[in-house]
């Protein structure tokens, strides 16, 4: 917890910023030229991969291991440590994926050449934004400038490698270290395994969602079109997982699945929104509150004049998942009701207005400017942004307390 909790001074700084009168929401056009970029945080989904589970039925795509070929331009050496700098933890998820062999011979959940190219392209876009157009980052990787964090899954670690290769054109001035966490303490995705209250709260919602009239009707129609018996356990998450993977690699299974691709995505989104409801503030807090706390802590560290230069990073990278981005976008009030595609990115820029010394935040989702909840404009005063985030942000202590509430209730029954 020490590694992702702000110090007491940072917490006090957050209160000070929130209590202070906000800077004007609208800066005059001539004043925007005095903004200086101070920090960038990028939250991204991994690149295209093989499905996590193959669909039943005769019309199955062949996932050839040749799809795993590594493009030379994406190669970039890196090491993985835990959050304290120790050895890379065991990955139970990778162990699970290794037990599922898809038709054609590829394992489940593997980053493909297409996915590697997507991440390299994202890295090149970031290079254009923060190296070429604005000389913010060094053109070569510098560990004093960049902090890299990823979930402990190979597809995310490899996606990060490809992004860094594109961003820094495979040039580095020091070792590339990717930090990760044990599965039971990971907060870069909703941790249903460790947070019992979250698991208990959402347990019945997924099943209840499939019983909703329109979702149930569409699921029945898709399954019948695919020739699947009604007893076959398939939901819109599994269907979308396969549709998205097939489309990314220009592959096609049954015509029915392709015909219903748009319906499949929309019903998967509807199901996700039924499981993590916007009205359920505590549920969203447990889903992404600790991650929001990490983002907030990085912002506060950057604006705190007491932060030593050795602890300042210009760029923070977080390799996450679609199930991270959906609740994160919901809490920020910018979810577009579309499933986050492979290599999707949410970018948080921190600026200081030099004449007034006021701080501002600007958000981008997949390269498009966003106006987050509680903000008057796309360029949001930092105190207003933090105030809006505070409705969902959880410190490690509050997160663990909230997650264990279900255990307390259970012990009384």
Automatic annotation (TrEMBL):
Catalyzed reaction equations: 1-(9Z-octadecenoyl)-sn-glycero-3-phosphate + H2O = 1-(9Z-octadecenoyl)-sn-glycerol + phosphate; a phosphate monoester + H2O = an alcohol + phosphate
EC numbers: 3.1.3.2
Superkingdom as given in the UniProt entry: Eukaryota
Keywords, ordered alphabetically: Signal
GO cellular component: mitochondrion
InterPro entries found in the cross-reference section: Acid_Pase_AS, His_Pase_clade-2, His_PPase_superfam, Histidine_acid_phosphatase
GO molecular function terms listed in the Swiss-Prot or TrEMBL record: acid phosphatase activity; lysophosphatidic acid phosphatase activity
CDD domains named in the record: HP_HAP_like
Membrane-crossing segments per the record: none
GO-annotated biological processes: hematopoietic progenitor cell differentiation; lysobisphosphatidic acid metabolic process
Signal peptide stretch: 1-22
Pfam families attached to this UniProt entry: His_Phos_2 (PF00328)
Enzyme class: hydrolase
Function: Hydrolyzes lysophosphatidic acid (LPA) containing a medium length fatty acid chain to the corresponding monoacylglycerol. Has highest activity with lysophosphatidic acid containing myristate (C14:0), monounsaturated oleate (C18:1) or palmitate (C16:0), and lower activity with C18:0 and C6:0 lysophosphatidic acid.
Family under the similarity heading: Belongs to the histidine acid phosphatase family.
Name the UniProt record assigns to this protein: Lysophosphatidic acid phosphatase type 6
